[in-house]
Amino acid sequence: MVASLLLLTSLLLRPTEGACTDQRYCVRDYDATSRRYTAIYWGLTTVPRDIPRDALELYLGHNAIASLPTGVFSHMTQCRIVRLHDNKKRTVSAGAFDGLLDCVELDLYSNAITSLPARVFAPMPRLKKLSLFNNQLETIAKESFKGLKSLDFLHLGMNRISSIENAVFSEMSSLHTLYLSNNRLSIIAHGIFTGLHGLQELHLSNPVTSVEPGALDPLYSLRWLTFYSRLTTLTPDLFINLPRPGLVVGLSDNPAVNRQWDCSALCWLKHEEQHGTVDLGAGPGCRDVEDWFELQCNDPGESGWSQGVQVSQGGVKGSR
């Protein structure tokens, strides 16, 4: 046992596989107790070949790994956590994650990934957390997330995503948290959120100018929605099928909230808040509208909320 550990240590310290790039933070070792392999700030350009087969955790952040070829982790069938953030990855090959059957957490954030092959994550059926924020993804194809039926958390923020194919999340019935903020989405299309019946937290802030009717309807478990956008119209049908009570809505920075456009949803939201079914006070929300408490809204009666509510310099006024 001692001899094997000494041999492993000598392999890890071979100068041919990189060198410390920052003396303050660099680490290169294998902890046999926790079965954690760490090589951070080590200037690695490829995934090391000497990672023990029984490793449970793999930390390779802050290196210069540019690609993940097919089968690079095929021998790591017991590994549960893989951290590959802050590298220079541009390409992820189909089959790159083959073998990671027990992986529950995968960090790929802060790289330069531009696309995802179809079913690339399918070899990880137990994956619960996937972080892809701060990359260069432009589109999300329908097959990108196939097989992720156990996923609980997905972070796709801070990319360049301008389009998402319908039903791309359709197998993610276990997903509770989804970050899509800080991308380039201009339209929220009907069908994008198909299958997300268990989603509880959605961060959707983008330069959105249009939401297709029924686009948010599948989200009937939602409890928190942040949606700072460029919408010029806010009508109740945007939110009316979302769950209540307990829903928290953040709408700051929408032109419909802050300028003179149709925003009849404000009256609907105020009505719901007064009845304790929607919370606009926790976090950014419609309270940012000047004179929120002076908002005058007519009872909708049987005809529904007026479509003529506008924001003026003196606040928001309702009309039939």
Going by CATH, the homologous superfamily of the domain at 1-113 would be: Ribonuclease Inhibitor
Query: How does the helix and strand content classify structurally?
Result: mainly beta
Rg, Å, rounded: 24 Å
Largest sheet: 12 strands, mixed
Q: Helix tally?
A: 3
Mass-distribution shape: elongated
What is the CATH architecture term of the domain at 1-113?
Answer: Alpha-Beta Horseshoe
State the end-to-end distance: 81 Å
Strand order of the largest sheet: 1-2-3-5-7-8-10-12-14-16-17-18
- Please give the number of β-strands: 20
Instruction: Give the CATH class of the domain at 1-113.
Output: Alpha Beta
* H/E element sequence: HEEEEEEEEEEEEEEEEEHHEEE
Helix content: under 10%
Low-confidence runs of at least 5 consecutive residues: 2-16, 281-296, 298-320
CATH fold descriptor of the domain at 1-113: Leucine-rich repeat, LRR (right-handed beta-alpha superhelix)
Strand content of the residues, in percent? 15-25%
Summarize the helices and strands and which ones pair or pack.
Layout lengths: L1 H11 L14 E5 L4 E5 L16 E3 L7 E2 L12 E3 L7 E2 L12 E3 L21 E3 L7 E2 L12 E3 L7 E2 L12 E3 L7 E2 L12 E3 L6 E2 L12 E3 L20 E4 L4 H4 L6 H10 L3 E2 L30 E3 L2 E3 L3
Parallel strand pairs: 2-3, 3-5, 4-6, 5-7, 7-8, 8-10, 9-11, 10-12, 12-14, 13-15, 14-16, 16-17, 17-18
Antiparallel strand pairs: 1-2, 19-20
Brief rundown of the structure:
Helices cover 8% and strands 18% of the residues. The protein is built from three helices and 20 strands. A twelve-stranded mixed beta sheet has the order 1-2-3-5-7-8-10-12-14-16-17-18, with helices on one face.
